[in-house]
Amino acid sequence: MHKSLLGLAAAASLGLASLAVPGTANAGCYGCAVGAGVIGGIAAGAIIGSAIANNPPPPPGYYAPPPPPPPGYYPAAGGYAQLAPGCYWGRRRVWVEGYGYQVRTVQVCN
After folding, report:
1. Which of 3, 26, 31, 86 has an alpha carbon 20 to 30 Å from 96's alpha carbon atom?
2. CA of 21: how far to CAs of 15, 16, 27, 55, in Å?
């Protein structure tokens, strides 16, 4: 999209340059080149503006929340986590509210 927009802007500027070239002297036409330049500028602005306006919106700047944690994930009430039978401590990527995914030590069960 950026290449086509750049090409459109280049074509519009070349078109305006061809309109802005001084013509032959005409005593009866005061400001014809200025009027043509204004009309060309308005047309180029409309073309470029409509090309920009038709772009799709950007993707959201956030990620969807993760699934809920497995049972037994949170530490016990005493402050120290109790390992369930058949489990061990391992480092895994987990969702931390306000920070996103972080590598933390969690209880891993087979």
Report:
1. 86
2. 10, 9, 17, 34
